[in-house]
Write a structure and sequence with these properties.
Pfam families: NAD_binding_10 (PF13460). InterPro entries: NAD(P)-bd_dom, NAD(P)-bd_dom_sf, NAD(P)-dependent_oxidoreduct. This is Oxidoreductase. This protein has 347 residues and is α/β, with parallel strands linked by helices. The chain has a domain of 192 residues: Rossmann fold. 46% of the residues lie in helices and 16% in strands. It contains 13 helices and 13 strands. The strands form 4 sheets. Strands 3-2-1-4-5-6-11 form a 7-stranded parallel β-sheet, sandwiched between helices. A two-stranded parallel ribbon has the order 7-10. A two-stranded parallel sheet has the order 8-13. The radius of gyration is 21 Å and the shape is globular.
């Protein structure tokens, strides 16, 4: 009999990509979904669908019963209220239900982060991981940085910033260190985590070997996709809140997702150790490098669409540079107004 894997968040980016990987590997895949019609039709008829809400204890127990491994791929980044509180409640419900259903293992995808105070987004991810690790069910919390893949919100933000801004003045977090990871490697590690021995209950850092800054990634993206060289400077006055407006002005990434993502980028996102190799193995051919990850992610994307839409490179350069200048002026002006108002109150 094939083993059973429950995949939550199956209508999201990682969950939708993981389900067919598990199916092709011989797993019986079950998904918990409030809206089954939103599941990918390419594999929807190959999985067992449990219609229910991840916030309802009975629904979660029903979905988890008989599962050998449960993938927790839920988050509440939607701009609708206190997502940290909602994530905490969802994780607590899932942890209790997994324990009651005697699930063999939980696998959760979290984010790389430094020690110390964190942004709301990363603090929430860490808190969810701690709740699951304390569930009494063996848990693997995989911690990843920017995921490079078509459809990833982090990649879409990188892509649109690079394609639309040949000249830019941005926030200082563009110089923070990051270890990105190709989505294919994320899926390999998630699949491998299902086979960890029961005594393994811990976080595991995953990522490619190369450490980069966001500026490095923008410049390399341009190089790999044949765009003109990008010229980028940073300003120390752009707070995460202001920087999210800067991103929102330039990219089509949903504000409810962009704000917490930008907030998390104020931190370095690098691995503390390389235990993933020993615990999860090595992806076939080794981890994918940045350039190859971009090539795979843009295989069905036209990086030059923006410039062609604006009737040639010169027009695109002028408009994009104008967007960068306008967004920078607006951000600096708002920052100064906020600073002056605080000074006035202090006086």
């Amino acid at each position: 009999m094939p083993r059973t894997a429950l995949v939550t968040g199956a209508t999201g980016y990682i969950g939708a990509a993981l389900a067919p990987v598990l199916l092709d590997d011989g797993w019986h895949v079950r998904v918990l979904a409030r809206s089954p019609h939103k599941l990918d039709p390419a594999w929807r008829d190959r999985v067992e669908v449990v219609t229910g809400d991840a916030g309802d204890f009975a629904d979660v127990v029903r979905a988890l019963t008989g599962a050998d491994v449960a993938y927790y791929l839920l988050h509440s980044m939607d701009g609708k209220g206190d997502y940290r509180a909602r994530d905490r409640e969802l994780a607590a419900t899932f942890a209790e239900a997994a324990r009651d259903a005697a699930v063999g293992r939980i696998v959760y995808l979290s984010g790389l982060h430094p020690r110390g105070p964190l942004s709301d987004h990363l603090a929430s991810r860490v808190e969810v991981g701690e709740i699951l690790l304390g569930s009494g069910v063996p848990t693997a919390v995989l911690q990843a940085g920017v995921v490079l893949g078509a459809g990833s919100a982090s990649f879409d933000m990188l892509r649109h910033l690079t394609e639309r801004l040949p000249v830019a003045v941005g926030p200082r977090w563009l110089r923070n260190r990051i270890q990105p990871i190709a989505v294919d490697d994320v899926l390999f590690y998630l699949r491998s985590a299902a086979d960890l021995p029961p005594e393994v209950n811990r976080t595991i850092d995953v990522g490619m070997d190369e450490r980069m800054t966001y500026i490095d990634m923008m410049r390399r993206y341009a190089q790999v996709t044949g765009l003109r060289p990008r010229h980028i400077w940073t300003l120390p006055v752009l707070t995460p809140g202001l920087a999210s407006h800067w991103v929102g002005l330039v990219t089509p990434v949903d504000a409810g997702i962009a704000r917490p993502l930008v907030g998390s980028l104020i931190h370095d996102a690098v691995k503390d150790d390389d235990d993933a190799r020993a615990l999860l193995g090595e992806p076939p051919g080794g981890t994918v490098g940045f350039d190859e990850a971009v090539r795979r992610a843009t295989a069905g994307i036209d990086p030059h669409w923006w410039s062609r839409t604006l009737r040639g490179g010169v027009a695109a350069f002028g408009l994009s540079a104008g967007l960068a200048v306008v967004s920078t002026i607006l951000s600096v002006t708002i920052a100064r107004l906020v600073r002056d108002r605080r000074r006035g109150k202090a006086a």
